[in-house]
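dumping these here so i dont lose them again. two proteins, back to back, each one seq then structure tokens. dont judge the mess
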Amino acid sequence: MKTCSYMPFHRVTLPRTCSRSRRTGRPRRADPSPRAMAPTPGSPYSDPETSTRRPPDENACPAPRRDPALFRRSNSREATDRQGRPVRNSVGKNELQNFGKFRVSGRNARGWLDRIMAGRVPRPNPLALPPMLSPSGRLMSDLTISCLSETEFRRAGSYGAQEIHLRWFETHLEDDVDVENVSVRVTGFQIAGLRTHDPLALATRDPTDPRLLDVRPMAVRQVTCLVHRMSYGDDPGFRLYCPPMNQCSLWKTLWEADRPISAGADSERAVLRDRVLEAFTAAVDDAHVQGHEPIWIDGRVQGLCTSGGYPPRAGVSVASGFVPRDRARDGLGMRNEFLDERRPARPATRPPFHAEGERTLG
């Protein structure tokens, strides 16, 4: 009698969400990125990594706290789309802690990099993205390399693969070359989008128009950063590297510089380009302009007062304010609102006293 035995095989499909990072169960180490932004952590290389974050005043699209294993879309879709929208329309920000970073130094640093990397090693200042190959010619990794000098280089790659990269470097290390993992000692932020230069220009006095792939130090308010000029999906971008102790200060600087731009508040500055500062006198005896009083022209509010006062020597109430450029002319009939009353005002084309400066000039 012949017995046939068989083993049943079943094909099982496990649910896979969009996010491969799982909730951190034990935050052994954490980067100093601001926790007030409600981050949702992932866990590459056993360290927390901020996956999504939201400002505390945004309740319409709450940041996902869990990423359950479902066949449906991940619940991080709305938060991810919300964070990607500023990159397409204005400016987006992301931290650099999720990059593995290495410092390569020594007299033989360039020669060693030239042998271990398949691409061209950059000269001082520009960046390069050469691939790193295995002995069989297979791609191991793409690493961004920046040359600070002929004896010092920086490399950035996958944070989760930093130990793999470090073992590979140490296996092929040569004399007069020092490789150091500085992933937890260097962090920062990257910004990208159509208006990337605008918040950076508000936060630094250094030139913010470097060429693509340039590397330069830059003082962003009180933080000295190593800035890489990048490109993200055909949009301009910057990577700003700094020490961990300065990351919170850098975030505050970038956030405050970007808020007017992202909120559209800079449109007010565009409107002011069509206005001119006008000085005028007001027919009022018992009050004077303090600031923010409406300026009425032809029955409509056309501007606001910026400042004013009553100089006793002139004997008249004076003020200044912005009015439309096409309405600023000699003899323009205006009215200022004082204590719920509209008082006549007219442009002051001459100073109220010593108009010619004869006493000053002698």
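---- next one ----
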Amino acid sequence: MSEMLKVCALDLEICVTHLIHINQNKVVRSIAPVAAQKQLCRQAIKLFAHYGILASPERDRDSFVIVAHALSLKADFLDWLCKENLEIQNMYRADTQTIEKCLHYTVAVWFTSHCFYSVGKALVKGPLFLETDMETAK
């Protein structure tokens, strides 16, 4: 018999999706826009984890989405947006598709920060990649 583990509880009525626009005019961002987009997403997840946000890059290189409680994003979040030259392009009610996408990306970022890496459909513990002895790695 299998058992389900409850990871989190979301109330769709009070969750809001923020579409964040990235100003690509900065020299560093214009050279590697996808890397900049993913870095900002990871940074948002790390900085505002205490708000319980979920985030994910969008297909275009100029934006990413954040799903959060409607009232949870405070002045420090708005200050971060200003500092990073980002702006909230759009706000709308969270839907299950956006939450699923953001949850998948946020969990992957969390695993990576704890030295687990996704290889295909498996998770591999990080220090294995740092082994110099190939016999140990086999």
